[in-house]
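#struct-help
A.M.: can someone run this one for me? Single chain, 223 residues.
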Amino acid sequence: MRENTGGPIHFLSRREKWQQKKETDFFSLIEQAGLYAERSTSFREKMRALYLFRELTGYQRTKGTDPGSLPERIFHTWYLCDYVTVKNERIIERFMKEKRRRDDWEFLSRLIVSYSSVFRVVEDAGNLSLHEWAGETLPFPVGDRVWNKDDLKAEYCIARPVKVGVKTLPLGPVIPLREKTAQKMTTWLEQQLETVHIPFRIFMQQKGLGIYRFLFQSYKEEC
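D.P.: on it. Structure tokens below:
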């Protein structure tokens, strides 16, 4: 039997180090998979994906499009995690298989069940948390690392939460919304969901990108 020395067990510090490693590994995986997606898929596949993305969101890429623009970042995440290729597989799945990333299958499973949705921003005692309008995702806290201080006054946002370790983190940017735009999105979603008979997650991954139509339209109106 191991002798009890009576010293403190630094469980919280160990868990925090473990959590930090999980997050580092996760975002490193996303970065590597993103580079893989750019380099390994054919021009025809990318054009097919862009066509479907345009049909869902109304977004039209042009020659002068900034690769780092918000619509392009949204497309990139969708293309990597949700778009189903002509071979009936996600890009992220193909990456994991070809690179034999067996230790990262937990991350893959979390990514596959994640989706973008509309959230309400709730402040309590100076702490912020995101509450999904549909209630499918449990509320989760957000910090300055994923939420720009200049946007703290926004009451709604779009986010894509993913469980990493013991925490829920947004994948990609948390996009602040005007209340009017958020209401248009949720009204549209409610109308669409009345006509389909598939799980909410599947709908959001396949058709839910339609919420971005209202976001992109609001940008046009402000210009």
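A.M.: thanks! The longest helix spans residues 11-40.
D.P.: also worth noting: DSSP finds eight helices and seven strands in the chain.
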